[in-house]
TrEMBL record:
Keywords: DNA-binding, Transcription, Transcription regulation. The keyword Transcription regulation applies. NCBIfam families: trans_act_CidR. This is LysR family transcriptional regulator. It holds the Pfam family LysR_substrate. The lineage of its organism: Bacteria, Bacillati, Bacillota, Bacilli, Bacillales. CDD domains: PBP2_CidR (cd08438). Residues 1-58 form the HTH lysR-type domain. It comes from the Bacteria. Gene3D superfamilies: 3.40.190.290, Winged helix-like DNA-binding domain superfamily/Winged helix DNA-binding domain.
Length: 291
């Protein structure tokens, strides 16, 4: 069985037809048709239901398609696996970072790892949790640090830390006199929230709805350090993780919210069934040992 024939078959399925597959592969359509026929004869199965107007996989075809993808992935990653077996302690790791995480703690661990593996390089990308998951699925990054839980059918994960979410107000705000509040007390407030790429946004809105109101959002941001300016300008209130609160101007008042939903957990995630380089696997093991 020729690996190229398997590549042709997979591309036909992905492109939903031989014409598109031939254009994608820059190969004549008769060549692809013959490759599919050769596969069917060799396996003694029918891969496509040709009674339909469009190419539709048979039951056997669906199974063969999944196995072909696994084999092609192994074939593509074989040189990397060989390098790993040789114990090469070099490489590059692309990491997606939550914009609302304890960056100092992460950088400290990264520094320790660099001392042990000085030839490994990094690409650090800061984003919201939803974008990080998308980048992992699309193989644009190797590891992500984001909110847990995640879909366990798609990602592996290890927890990093949990923390409370606190209400942050200007010291002149009328709520600044409180040390604790209930969520429903915020129904008439203007909210400064992160944008829709952040799970923190979803958590705050869901908790507010469960408390009987929809937050009046007057500003959406992607960088937490903008919040200081907005709070100073009396534009509204915000809800932030404790680690971010500790980095804000100490003049702001942080207030406990009496609601069990006002906690969250961050963790390290990576896509299942994806080849991880030796350097990436070492980084994950290094993290596990320090958590």
């Amino acid at each position: 069985m020729d690996i190229k024939h398997m590549q042709y078959f997979v591309e036909v399925v992905n492109q939903k037809g031989m014409t598109n597959a031939s254009k994608s592969l820059y190969i004549a359509q008769p060549t692809i048709s013959k490759a599919i026929k050769d596969l069917e004869e060799e396996l003694d199965i029918v891969l496509f239901d040709r009674s339909k107007r469009q190419l539709v996989l048979t039951d056997a075809g669906r199974i063969f398609y999944q196995k072909c993808k696994e084999i092609l992935t192994l074939y593509k990653d074989l040189p990397k696996e060989i390098n790993s077996l040789l114990g090469l302690e070099t490489g590059h790791i692309s990491i997606g970072l939550s914009a609302v995480m304890n960056m100092n703690k992460f950088i400290h661990i990264l520094g320790e790892f660099h001392q042990k593996y000085p030839d490994v390089t990094y690409n650090l990308v800061e984003n919201g949790g939803k974008m990080i998951e998308t980048q992992l699925i699309n193989d644009e990054i190797d590891i992500g640090i984001t909110t847990l839980p995640v879909d366990q059918t798609i990602f592996h994960s290890i927890p990093l830390y949990q923390e409370e979410l606190k209400l942050i107000v200007n010291p002149e705000h009328h709520l600044a006199k409180y040390d604790e509040i209930d969520m429903h007390m915020l129904k008439d407030e203007d909210f400064i929230l992160f944008n829709e790429d952040f799970y923190l946004n979803d958590k705050i809105i869901e908790t507010a709805k469960n408390s009987g109101f929809v937050p009046n959002t007057i500003s959406k941001i992607s960088q937490w350090n903008f919040i200081e300016n907005l709070l100073n300008a009396h534009l509204g209130v915000s809800i932030l993780p404790e680690n971010i609160v500790s980095m804000l101007d100490q003049n702001f008042k942080n207030i406990k919210i009496n609601n069990s939903s006002m906690r969250w957990e961050l963790g390290v995630i990576w896509k299942k069934d994806k080849y991880l380089s030796y350097a990436t696997r070492q980084w994950i093991d290094f993290l596990k040992a320090r958590l």
